[in-house]
Design a protein that fits this description.
The chain is an alpha/beta fold and 236 residues long. Helix content is 34%, strand content 18%. The longest helix is centred in the last third of the chain and has 17 residues.
């Protein structure tokens, strides 16, 4: 099915969770040197997803090293308890999970985050269809993150059964005239990115797709060029 056209800029967002976990500063430096558009920070609380990563203290320490956009993916059950700390730490984009919120709770978070000049996104697990309350608030989003792996760990393979949902979401956003970013998180590699880019995904989160490569700095640019080539060859 051809997708209605809204031009979205390809952006590469290395996920530092895929880098050396003993040296997140080095992983950040790779993203900067590679020309990444933003850096993806996977915050997991051990409840929402089966892993524990890092918190606002780590984000604050990394913030001192770059002005690159911090895309903070909050895979946590009660984001209201931590949003002030991440605002203070220097996060720019707050991407919450729709599964962890209601419309009313989202509205309160939106007001707080926008009052500080920051932006908000929502993420959907592979098995989650878009809730009605999210559809009603799409115009408040900077980013809609379509997860193509189950949240928790870097290095998973992309779940290809998510592709019809991605296409449906892209069509919906285009029909509404909403040029918000469509972020793809999970299993983005040279072999898979064509599938998501041709279905509208434009922000490519890459952990293993950058940090597991022989030259991770060059890998950022290689992903970008491959994505541009995929767009140039037409629809899926």
């Amino acid at each position: 099915m051809p997708l209605a056209e809204i031009k979205r800029k390809i952006k590469i967002a290395p996920s530092i969770l895929g880098g050396d976990q003993a040296n997140f500063a080095a992983a950040l430096e790779i993203a900067v040197k590679g020309g990444a558009d933003q850096v993806h920070l996977d915050v997991i609380d051990g409840h929402f997803a089966p892993n524990i990563t890092f918190g606002p203290g780590t984000v604050k320490a990394l913030r001192k090293r770059t002005d690159l956009k911090f895309d903070t993916h909050l895979m946590i059950d009660e984001p209201e308890k931590f949003v002030d700390k991440f605002l203070d730490a220097g996060s720019d984009l707050f991407c919450f999970h729709a599964e962890a919120l209601t419309g009313e709770r989202f509205d309160a978070l939106y007001s707080k985050i926008h009052s500080k000049g920051k932006v908000i996104g929502l993420a959907l697990k592979p098995s989650t269809e878009m809730p009605e309350w999210v559809e009603k608030r799409l115009d408040k989003l900077d980013t809609l993150c379509v997860m193509t792996v189950n949240p928790g760990f870097s290095g998973q393979s992309m779940i290809m059964s998510v592709m019809p949902k991605l296409e449906k979401i892209t069509q919906m956003l285009n029909d509404k005239g909403l040029p918000i970013d469509i972020e793809i998180d999970g299993g983005v590699e040279l072999e898979t990115l064509e599938h998501v880019v041709k279905r509208g995904g434009n922000v490519l989160v890459a952990g293993a797709g950058v940090y597991y490569k022989p030259d991770p700095i060059k890998a950022v640019g290689i992903l970008r060029e491959k994505a541009k080539q995929a767009i140039a060859t037409g629809a899926a």
